Amino acid sequence: MQHIIIAGFGFMGTMHAQIYQKLKQARIVAVVDTATARARASMKKLGVEAPLYDDLARALAEVEAEVVDICLPTDLHLSNALLAIKAGRHVFCEKPIALTSSDGWKIAKAAAEAGVTAQVGQCIRFWPEYMAFKNLLESGKAGKLVSLTLQRRSALPSHSSDHWLLDPKRSGGAAVDLHIHDTDFILYLFGMPEAVRSFSPGSEPWSSQIFTQYLYERICVTAECGWNYPRKWGFQMAFQAVFEDGAVEYDNGADPTITVTLGRGQKKPLPFKNPSIGSSVTGSGNVSALGGYFNELQSFVRSLDAGRAPETATPDEATRSLEIVLAELESVKTRKQVSLKP
């Protein structure tokens, strides 16, 4: 049984709480949030029975726990992760791991030296449809991949407390907070690109759309992200993949959400497993909103139970993803291609 302190009980903290309540090997033993009235109301609504603290250090001193799950604003990740690691706790840290690569490496180094397990919430590596696409890619059934284009689009987020997401000094903006999902998935599939070339049509690239080409041999990879859509436009994550003998399309708002076309065959839903309900679906129907989040936390808890390091979404990998995104922002600023070669 993993006893867990959740630090930060806003949008993601409450999401994580719902998942831990579904996992038999997890128990929430404390919640930490400075907005105590709001957190207490959320805990009551979700049926979370645990003490509430406004300071992580005090919770660590008073509560027996093996894990700290950090769902705080990004500018607080470094200090709280290091505090938990110093106390000998395992750490799950929401993405992005930090605002700078140097801070990301500090977390990775501290966890390794302390011998604690750490994982970062790069949930797209665990998202059912993205996992299905990766499996198809590795199977070779559609031939070699020719191109991959990814999109992540929304209006300015309004769900963060004190609107911290809209402060680039706290969140890094759309590129670091949202676009990093696709950048990380690209890293997961293909490794580090040789270079990136990025463009933003706005004067504030941290919030405007960012368009990036990732340079790999014999494959064209691009991604787009932005927070500059109309307020009621909604949210979209999508991708299109072209193979030598097939194509895959995904759109979270479509039904079915993901389709595949192989050779001369007809377009059809690409089956994937919904980890929240433990069954396979065909790409249509209701996929739990907890899908990828459930899968990543389940994987983390299982790794702790087995006494092994996570197989993916490690602090090292999360920091490399951050390095790529920061190189993209540098490319926007300089209007030049930025090399990522060692």
Summarize the topology.
Layout: E1 2-7, H1 11-20, E2 26-32, H2 36-46, E3 52-53, H3 56-62, E4 67-70, H4 77-86, E5 90-94, H5 101-114, E6 118-121, H6 128-139, E7 145-154, H7 168-171, H8 173-190, E8 195-199, E9 210-216, E10 219-226, E11 235-243, E12 246-251, E13 258-262, E14 268-269, E15 272-274, E16 279-281, H9 291-306, H10 315-334, E17 338-339
Parallel strand pairs: 1-2, 1-4, 2-3, 4-5, 5-6, 7-10
Antiparallel strand pairs: 7-11, 8-9, 8-17, 9-10, 11-12, 12-13, 13-14, 15-16
Q: If you had to describe this structure to a student in words, what would you say it looks like?
A:
With 342 residues, this protein is of the alpha/beta class. The protein has 2 domains: 2-122 and 296-313, NAD(P)-binding Rossmann-like Domain (Rossmann fold); 125-284 and 321-339, Dihydrodipicolinate Reductase, domain 2 (2-Layer Sandwich). Helix content is 36%, strand content 26%. It is built from 10 helices and 17 strands. Strands 14-13-12-11-7-10-9-8-17 form a 9-stranded mixed sheet. Strands 3-2-1-4-5-6 form a 6-stranded parallel sheet, sandwiched between helices. Helix 2 links the parallel strand 2 (26-32) and strand 3 (52-53). Helix 4 packs parallel to helix 5 (101-114) and helix 8 packs across helix 10.
What features would you highlight for this structure?
Rossmann fold, 2 domains, Dihydrodipicolinate Reductase, domain 2, nine-stranded mixed beta sheet, globular, alpha/beta, six-stranded parallel beta sheet, single chain
In the CATH hierarchy, what is the superfamily of the largest domain? Answer: Dihydrodipicolinate Reductase, domain 2
Q: What's the structural domain tally?
A: 2
Shape: globular
Rg (CA only): 20 Å
Bin the helical content.
Answer: 25-40%
Average pLDDT rating:
92
Biggest beta sheet attributes: 9 strands, mixed
The rounded distance between the terminal residues' Cα atoms is: 42 Å
Strand order of the largest sheet: 14-13-12-11-7-10-9-8-17
Order of helices and strands: EHEHEHEHEHEHEHHEEEEEEEEEHHE
